[in-house]
Recover the amino acids of this structure.
């Protein structure tokens, strides 16, 4: 209750998206979409079973979320005769907030159109920032030591999760307005990417299973991690379609509590390729370059540089405000007929029916402040086995 009050107060009358104090001027592109908060009728799709076996695992990955307790870094620094705009530290929300983060960075550039702009980084944030800068008329070159599919962004789960480890509750009120602006802008942009060849972005149906009633779950708090704000629930309630409780007679799962909800999903292989294609089609060039120290920003030809180095900024800038939050995923061979996913957090597992591989997320306590990039196969195999158990205990309804 107290938290809700806290955030609502912070957002207050500025809900329409004024970003004064963040970008310096009011963005013209943000508005409340004309969606009504109508609840979707409950209809269960045919539930094909996942072939959840460890011999169908085709990839395992680990990466670290670039989390900052106070929210992403977005300030502007002058280094010699260069202007550096920082755009990193988007925690577990980098894909989801990317278009908003990109717009925010672009609006910080106070230069003539046609000015050459360097974007350092080619992950979710770098690519969207580069495209936003191109749209604003700048000539953009991306410099990066890795590009998709070998950036950390390529190893993400790939779902709309705009308030996942983006800020701590302690800093939530100060960041709420900027967050909401970014989230709404990104959400609208994603709707324009539906139905494209390769399905870079699509909606799927999710089921959330729970052993205890959802009301007893204690919000977003994860053992071993600081409390986070439930921004999405508090501030975007009008935006995304509602979750519905699945009534007992329709519940095919073994847990007594199940919710169904639509979820926006990113097929990261196709989506990254789409972003790369748009960037190059607009005349953009990607140059391989690794920056070793902060002073390297001074050696660019471009007068303006946007720093989208994600977790890489921790070493590059000695930035101790970045906390690594480890995450391990694996992919099972895709099943084109699978049209739903499951989140069963009590059993540390979830899966998403991505077209580039059924994405299985293993959750582990001890991920927070854990920079370990080594893969623990046992973790993913346990998550896949947990899914096998769910499949086995499903009943027809
Ligand atoms: C397991 C896991 C699941 C996740 N799931 C989701 C999800 O479902 N939805 C969501 O929205 N977010 C998710 N995230 C978070 C999301 O992946 C990150 O917030 C996002 O990838 C950050 O993107 P980025 O572009 O800042 O960083 P990166 O993808 O790390 O890109 C950084 C770029 O900078 C370059 N670079 C770094 N240092 C240097 C240097 N010194 N010199 C030159 N280049 C450099 C890199 O080569 C790369 O090109 C997840 C994260 C994890 C770990």
């Amino acid at each position: 209750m107290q938290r809700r009050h806290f955030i609502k107060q912070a957002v207050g009358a500025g809900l329409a998206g004024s970003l004064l104090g963040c970008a310096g001027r009011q963005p013209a592109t943000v508005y409340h979409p004309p969606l009504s908060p109508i609840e979707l009728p409950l209809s269960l799709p045919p539930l094909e079973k996942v072939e959840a076996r460890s011999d169908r695992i085709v990839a395992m990955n680990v990466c670290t979320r670039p989390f900052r307790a106070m929210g992403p870094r977005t300030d502007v620094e002058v280094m010699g005769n260069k202007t550096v705009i920082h755009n990193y530290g988007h925690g577990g929300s980098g894909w989801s907030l990317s278009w908003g983060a990109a717009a925010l960075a672009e609006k910080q550039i106070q230069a003539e159109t046609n000015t050459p702009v360097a974007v350092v980084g080619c992950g979710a944030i770098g690519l969207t920032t580069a495209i936003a800068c191109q749209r604003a008329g700048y000539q953009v070159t991306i410099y990066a030591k890795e590009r998709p599919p070998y950036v950390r962004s390529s190893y993400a789960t790939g779902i709309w999760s705009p308030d996942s480890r983006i800020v701590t509750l302690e800093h939530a009120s100060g960041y709420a307005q900027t967050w909401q602006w970014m989230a709404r802008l990104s959400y609208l942009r994603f709707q324009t990417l539906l139905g494209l060849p390769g399905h870079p972005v699509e909606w799927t149906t999710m089921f959330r299973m729970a052993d205890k009633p959802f009301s007893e779950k204690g919000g977003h708090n994860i053992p071993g991690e600081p409390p986070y704000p439930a921004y999405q629930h508090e501030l975007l309630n009008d935006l995304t379609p509602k979750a519905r409780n699945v009534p007992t007679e329709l519940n095919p799962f073994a847990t007594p509590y199940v919710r169904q909800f639509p979820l926006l999903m990113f097929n990261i292989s196709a989506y990254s390729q789409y972003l790369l294609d748009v960037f190059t089609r607009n005349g953009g060039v990607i140059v391989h370059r690794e920056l070793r120290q902060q002073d390297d920003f001074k050696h660019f030809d471009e007068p303006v540089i946007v720093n989208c180095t994600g977790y890489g900024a921790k070493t590059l800038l000695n930035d101790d405000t970045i906390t690594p939050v480890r995450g391990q995923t694996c992919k099972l061979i895709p099943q084109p007929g699978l049209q739903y996913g499951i989140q069963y957090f009590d059993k540390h597992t979830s899966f998403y029916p991505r077209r580039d591989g059924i994405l299985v997320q293993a959750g582990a306590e001890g991920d927070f402040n854990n920079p370990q990039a080594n893969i623990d196969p046992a973790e993913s195999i346990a998550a896949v086995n947990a899914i096998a158990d769910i499949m086995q205990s499903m009943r027809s309804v």
Q: What stands out?
A: The chain is about 25% helix and 20% strand. The longest strand covers residues 57-68. The chain has a mean pLDDT of 89.
